[in-house]
Amino acid sequence: MTHIYNFSAGPAVLPKEVLAQAAAEMLDWHGSGMSVMEMSHRGPEFMSIYKAAERDLRELLAVPDNYKILFMQGGGLSQNALIPLNLLGHKPEGATIDFIHTGSWSDKSIKEARKYANVNVAASSATQVPPQAEWRLTPGAAYLHMCTNETIGGVEYQPDFNDPRFKDLVLVADMSSHILSRRIDVAKYGVIFAGAQKNIGPAGVTIVIIRDDLLGRALPICPSAFDFKLVADNESMYNTPPTYGIYIAGLVFQWLKKQGGVAEMERRAIAKAELLYNALDASDFYETRVAPANRSRMNVPFYLKDESKNEAFLAGAKARGLLQLKGHKSVGGMRASIYNAMPIEGVQALVDYLNEFAGL
Questions:
Q1: What's this model's pTM, rounded to 2 decimal places?
Q2: Mean pLDDT, to the nearest integer, of 251-264?
Q3: pLDDT of 1 strictly over 60
Q4: Domains of the chain, with CATH numbers?
Q5: Of 152, 87, 147, 88, nearest to 123 (Cα)?
Q6: pLDDT tens digits, residue range 285-319?
Q7: What are the start-end ranges of the E strands in the chain?
Q8: In degrees rounded to 5, what are phi and psi of residue 119?
Q9: Where does residue 290 fall: left (phi above 0), alpha (psi -120 to 50 degrees), or beta otherwise?
Q10: Is-contact 179 252, C-beta < 8 A?
Q11: Residues with catalytic function
């Protein structure tokens, strides 16, 4: 195999340049005589790494000054608990959280939130986003939670911020699997969070971007190490952070800037997604199940119409260096995750194989 293309949904492919730099710096970071793994998280060497990562991410996403960026542990899934623990302390008991349900990750968020508050599912569909005018939002809800890209089901969307109901709404968005792949207006959101292991770096780091006025609202039962205000006040150093993961994330941010930033990543994402979806749509051998208007640019689930050929398809793909194409166990089929680090050559190689396997 001359080329390996890893379509894993996460932990996912990283830029080769980043991996090469990390390998070169493994034993001695910038003449310090230490690996990043060995550094004190409060020492000047690591603090310079942390400050650069925070600064570059702020630049890439144009994060306003009245937002804090936190580097936390636990993954995106843990934020399903940490968000209500941090945003309900100023609300009376029995507060309601609104949710837009668009798939598996929305479902997990809803189940977790029910431990802390009433939940209203304002809209629900696993294959498309219901029209926003039909969302049954709760007046005075604590916040509205949405997963703007469903990694498993492949539904992606951004809300219409012209909706007058959004004027005073606190919007929480799980952007784990498409952050940094498309331009967003951070100022429209109260909280954005993302597990790193899809489009940022290795598993173990979670990014939280939170508006200043939402800090200090934690429930009394919130553990200190997960209180967003304490984490922010201590520059993510209240407890020992995932230092090596932050270092790799920082290298990815530098790589993204060299590539042209988020605008260039969005251009590439559109081109890769169109290439793959066009091939799937052109064949009677495959099918997709997400409404075209809500198809994810990052996670492309698809199915062989004759599912008895699934194992043969995966074996042939592996023989050609096309890895991790099996769909999530909850939905079956296939899934190609084409994050920022996946080159268009990898998508073209997959398209060539799709056509070959279908006999086209």
A1: 0.96
A2: 98
A3: no
A4: 17-258 (3.40.640.10), 261-357 (3.90.1150.10)
A5: 147
A6: 999 999 999 999 999 999 999 999 999 999 999 99
A7: 5-6, 67-72, 96-101, 118-124, 144-147, 171-174, 191-195, 206-211, 286-287, 299-304, 322-323, 334-337
A8: -125, 130
A9: beta
A10: no
A11: 105, 174, 198
DSSP code, position 122: E
For residue 279 the two structure tokens come to 């091939």
**Residue 166 token pair:** 């959004």
Task: Identify whether the C-beta of residue 73 lies closer than 8 Å to the C-beta of residue 238.
Answer: no
User: Are 304 and 280 in contact, with CB atoms under 8 Å apart?
Assistant: no
87 touches 214 (CB < 8 A) = yes
User: If 0-12 CB within 10 Å is exposed, 13-18 middle and 19+ buried, where does residue 231 land?
Assistant: buried
Q: How far apart are CA 228 and CA 320, in angstroms?
A: 46
Q: Helix or strand or coil: residue 271?
A: helix
Encode burial over 64-80: b for 16+ CB neighbours within 10 A, e otherwise: eeebbbbbbbbbbebbb
Residue 293, token pair as written in the block = 């208007």
Contact 191, 83 (CB under 8 A): yes
Report residue 80: phi and psi, to 5°: -60, -30
Model pLDDT for residues 56-111, shown as the tens digit of each residue:
999 999 999 999 999 999 888 899 999 999 999 888 788 999 999 999 999 999 99
CA distances in angstroms from 93 to 41, 84, 90, 115, 151, listed in the order given: 38, 12, 9, 12, 33
How many other CB atoms are found less than 10 A from the CB of residue 294?
Answer: 18
Give residue 359's pLDDT. Answer: 85
